[in-house]
Amino acid sequence: MVKPILRANIDFANSHLITDEATIYQRISEELPHDIIRHKSEYIRGEIHTQNIEGYWSILKRGLFGVYQHVDAGYLGRYLDEFAYRFNTRQLTDAERFCLLLAQTQGRVTWYCRTEQPENPYA
């Protein structure tokens, strides 16, 4: 049931999956390197942990429940992209994050830009 989703979204040749002990991931180690963190007894084992994804989920849940409150399934991917961007740039200042975002818009939002100035009714 989960296998087609994993196959479509994981680069099996270059990935190392780290999960909790949920049984849904039991057989994934047949496909790629897989380590398990058992939260009943540990939260980190050397380089093996789930802290990054738990931090991301925390930011996402606070945003969805605290700010947006209703997310249409048709737009869920866009919300996830927004919060992934926020998480990945969390150590930047707001000004740095804004400049980085603007640098990525070149050629993408031309439909917002006017090619001619509107007539000034006060002139």
Descriptive account of the structure:
The protein is mainly alpha-helical. It has two domains: 49 residues, no CATH class; 61 residues, no CATH class. The protein has a two-stranded parallel sheet. A two-stranded antiparallel ribbon has the order 3-4. Strand 3 and strand 4 form a beta hairpin. It is elongated.
Using brief descriptors, characterize the structure shown.
2 domains; 4 strands; single chain; 4 helices; two-stranded parallel ribbon; elongated; 8% strand; mainly alpha; 123 residues
Please give the alpha-carbon distance between the first and last residues: 66 Å
Structural class: mainly alpha
Indicate the proportion of strand residues.
5-15%
H/E topology pattern: HEEEEHHH
The largest sheet has its strands arranged as 1-2
Specify the biggest β-sheet.
2 strands, parallel
Total number of helices? 4
Give the beta-strand count: 4
**Helicity level, as a percent range?**
25-40%
Give the integer mean of the pLDDT values: 82
* Model regions low in confidence, pLDDT < 50 over at least 5 residues: none
Rg over alpha carbons: 21 Å
Number of domains: 2
Globally, the shape reads elongated
Quick description:
This protein is mainly α and 123 residues long. It has helices spanning 3-9, 51-68, 76-88, 94-103, and strands at residues 17-19, 34-36, 44-45, 48-49.
Could you outline the blueprint of secondary structure elements for this entry?
Layout: H1 3-9, E1 17-19, E2 34-36, E3 44-45, E4 48-49, H2 51-68, H3 76-88, H4 94-103
Parallel strand pairs: 1-2
Antiparallel strand pairs: 3-4
